[in-house]
Predict the 3D structure of the following.
Amino acid sequence: MSFRSVVITTSSALALSAGMAMANSSVTVGMQLEPPHLDPTSAAAGAIDSVLYSNVFEGLTRFMGDGSVVPGLAKSWDISADGKTYTFHLQDGVMFHDGSAMDAEDVKFSLDRARAEDSTNAQKALFAGISDVMVVDPLTVKVSLSEPNGNFLFNMAWGDAVIVAPESIGDIKTNPVGTGAFKFAGWVQGDRIDLEKNASYWGTPAVLDKASFKFISDPTAAFAAMMAGDIDAFSGFPAPENLPQFEADPRFQVLVGSTEGETILSTNNKQPPFDNPKVRAALAHAIDRQAIVDGAMFGYGTPIGTHFAPHNPAYIDLTAQSAYDPDKAKALLAEAGFPDGFETTLHLPPPSYARRGGEIIAAQLAQVGIKAEITNVEWAQWLETVFRGKNFGLTIVSHTEPMDIGIYARPEYYFQYDNKAFQDLMTELNSTTDPAKRTEMLQTAQRIIADDHVNGYLFQLAALSVAKADLQGLWANAPTQATDLTAVSWSK
């Protein structure tokens, strides 16, 4: 071997060593959807939480990977005997990423902003029961409720309830300033969002120095990027047909878990003919859930018959109430005055479960005479026309918010279901703390919306992620829509 070749080999080894060291302090995570903006407190887009939840923004409480709710910016709390007053004791020494202190005034600002009349918070109902927020001292805040709410600590763990500061709220959509273990470093729109380690973090510091979220919408491109090693992990991998190939490759690990994502054929209950319960029942019986799970998700997913997660102890299996029965669907349509069927619209946002599932559902509906005209829409367009504008007949979306059956008590919500008995039940549930009674009420709630066929209940979305074999600390399950990197590291 010549001297020259030794020098080249040694230099290459040094470069490789340096590259490995750099790789071991950073991670690039693929995601299918890019957030429309970066304020989790003013949009329904789960992609915002996927990037920012826990990483950049934190709430008084937070979800862990197993779904448990633990202290966050509040280290502890006292609950009054009547269940209507929560006194939160805040962590000491918490700083926002801009160097300002986080204190009780910021908590008051965040909760008051979320519940204000002009609030654009997508989950404003979480805060509706708050009657007053009072600053006791810089590290103590007292929250008064109009009625006891057994879900209150759970609600405060949502991404919509993170704590923000008045000083940085003006440009939060493009420059998010939180208190988390990572801080926002940059956003190349259409490509990626970069985070960097928060050296002044109040809690257990992140292991990684840098993290990037790379946006790859096309399932084929996602597979290619993962196989080439261009990305280290893909959260919510959009091509389940490729998972066996990753499972057989020792370079990778496949994480299969559960989510809170009820995937539904959302139905505009105020738009004729879907204001007719018989038409909604016909729609439900026209759907072959298992064919959708097999065809769109390659077998990954659990069929559901109501809006509730199967892994929740209060879940009841109501799939039989809307079993696949095309003949029954046709008979119901005839009874409703549509013997020849009708035409409607089917808006499909970008996720694979929607685009692939939508093609299958349109074909199934056509078999009973319902012609659904497919319109593929980008996420921002879906939020504008469907979620806010309510200008749709049918759409497919996975509701990834944790235990969110309460949305059916909101007549203004985009599928516009208005049932006073259900609304009263949810009001009673919120003021009930006894676990057995809460379970009974939740099961009654599941039956009501299944009986009314409010939406076409399809399947519970599986959490499917792919990562390099030596990446550790990723959540397998998705108790909320988040890619929590705060405990992620490389094993070598």
User: Anything to note?
Assistant: The longest strand covers residues 252-267. The chain has a mean pLDDT of 92.
